[in-house]
Task: structure prediction
Amino acid sequence: MRTLFISFILFLLVLPFTNGKKTVDEYRIMSCNIRITGLEDDAPFPERVWENRRDLCVNTILKRQPDFFCMQEVIYDSYEYFKQKCKKYTSYGFVGPEMDPYTNGYHFIGKNVIFFRTDKFELVGSGCYWLSDDPLIGGSMSWGTNRARHCNWVRLKDKETGRQFRLLNIHLDHKSDSARREQIKIIIRECAQYADNFPQIICGDFNAGIKSAPIKYIHAQKGWNEMYEDIHGMDEYGYTCHGFLGLERQGTGRRIDFIFHHGNVQTLKCEVVKDHIDKMYPSDHYFLDATFKLK
Result:
């Protein structure tokens, strides 16, 4: 009887952590290319204009209550709006010398911004480097890349468990596969300075499909895996950059948005987010939504 009573008490203690809720060391992450705002090509289409779709964009993310989310193609107006709406989060990765002279428009460099929950995580470290032969110089370019590209990263500490991990947010060149290959080499080489078991996660728009040079390169590196593939296998998903056409864009397109991981990370779930209202989508990209735990 005493053994049965103890077992029942242990069951009650464990129940809150297993009843459909996230357990300790289990986190939700999203990767979201939110589309540069104010582009002339979008102006004739009301459903593509930022001021019309911004609430759908924000709500698509916040209703999933991610612990952190990585956004690409962020500029001034979208950044300010997300800061206004995401009160439980702080952000890293917008400030930079290459955009300080400009207060409006694209100017060819959209930022890769990371938002994370301030009530759950402590910022241990952060940084930015440029994907070029001169990575410490903001706006520097190499290998014929069409525009300057960068990597923002944060090192976070879970306030409850003390566990630490690293998030990186990237957006590779959209024209040259050879430039993308060199850019991903820099990122993987930089990550290699950490211990093999240290958890690292790379979110981003790779502008490349699973058969391309940069994706083949990262798959060839020991210990690197991708969250969507962990759950669904290596088959091509199809378009994640749907050009605001959503479900109307069918065919054999490529998935170009990825969440790679290294170290003591185990993927639990990963899905492509297809939220929309009629013909309005949050962005011209579908977002990725993943849950993982630290092993």
